Structures are given as C-alpha cells and as structure tokens.
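We modelled the chain as a single entity of 278 amino acids. Its sequence is:
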Amino acid sequence: MAMSMRVSNMGGRVIATKRAGVRSYHQHDALGNTIALINDSGVVTDTYTYWPYGELRTSTGSTTNPFKFCGAWGYYTDTTGRTYVRARTLRPGLTRWMTVDPLWPEESPYKYCNGSPIYRVDPTGLQLNIVVGCLIPPCARFPGGPCEWARKKLNPSKTTVATVICCGGVKRTCIFRPPFLTELLVCIAAHEQVHHSQCNCNKGDGYCLGPVPGWDEECVAYKRELKCVLAVFWKCQMKSFPHPRLECLAEVRKHKRNTCNQIFRYCLETPKECSWGT
C-alpha cells in the first residue's frame, strides 16, 4: 500500500512535505529546483543537482521525494522519471512534453519552455509564463512586456504590422497594428508563423533572423496569410458571424488587396484567388 504524504505550500510553492510522521523542509534554487531537504533538527538529509531539462545529475540521501526538478512549482516526478506538470507530462530525458502545446502552431508543439529551461518554468503545463527573477533579460522586464520593448527599442517601421522577436532566447510574435477584425489576427499570426519556424535567436535579443531571409520566405508567408483571409471572407457572409456584414467585407477586402499586392511583389505572380470578392 502506498504511503500518503502531506504537502505544505506557501504562495503556491511547495515548502515542506511530511511522510510517516517525518517532516522535510525543501530548499530551492532560483529556478525552483529542490536542492536540499532539511529535517526538524536542521540537518541536511538529502541533496540534489540537475541537468538543464530536469534529469537528476547527482543526489545524496534516501528520503522519498517526488518534488525535485522545479519542485517548488509542484512538478511531480515519479519513479520512472516522468514529471507531471498538471495539464501535461514532461520527459526530461527527451527534453520534451509528451502531448502537444495547446498554443500550437503559434508555439512549438512539444518543446519544453521554448528551449530555455535554465531560467523559465511552466507550472500549469499550458503556458510558459514565469521567468526566474535574477535572470530576467531587459526585454522581459520592460513595462508592457517584450513586444512593447520591441516597439520602443527596435523602432519598427510605421508600416510594420507584426514581426517575430527574440527575448531571452525565446521567440515571440508581436503584432504592432492589430486589424479591426479580430479574426484577421489569426491570419497575421499564420504569416508570422512562417518566419517563426525559419528564424533563430542566435544573435541575442532583437529581431528574430533566419539563416537566409529573403523573398521566397515572404512569398510563402503571404500566400499562407491569403488562404486565411479568404476563409474570413466567407465567414463574413454567414448570418451567425458577429460583425456587420458590409463592414466585415470591406475590412477583409482591404486586407486581401494588401496581401495580394505583397504576393505580386514577392512571388512575381497574382493568384486567381485575388480576384474573388473584389
């Protein structure tokens, strides 16, 4: 029969556990990893060190403790090495989640913490949303967040609708000029996802740059955006659509014309879809 364990927490962080009448106080590093257990007498009974993605590197002591890697945040590691993080399961040995990120394709489907496990955690298993305080890069500390930092510091062109930036080694899609129709945000995101998949953050914080940025990439991006815009165009004509039909069609036609102009510029062609609904 499995032995029960009582867990004490403060502010949402695990601070102690009690099993069979024996209490252990958890000591954490800046990331929230449990690095030591201390008993009621103040004696260190167990210690732990980790590899970046949570595999146990070294340990001393024999206390049963499932709250090791990011244990302060409630990451629960079983005896097989799988780590349960509420909504999803992490496999540290594979450096990945076992199920798809709900934000995919905007986010990588399986990558843990966008490849930045040494200063980021994901306590819900659904959204990377915490940065270790002592390692927060300036772009993440900026009032309004990384995208506002990009708007102020990178000085994008007034015609720039959206772009992909790097902040602390993490790619982020920033939309500077959101469209009137929120449905078109998905189309802009679809465009930027092409750049998101091609660029890298090797050069630090700033614009996310691909190995060979060029017209071919923009051509693919605008064609993907056009496909999405056409889907919104047909939705505008449905009675159940939440926006007035004429306003919706006018906004979509305006967006489609701009997209088609960019396709002609970068692809040197005009898709037949560009004549629909004009």
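As a brief sanity check on the tokenised model: The chain has a mean pLDDT of 86. The first strand starts at residue 5 and ends at 10.
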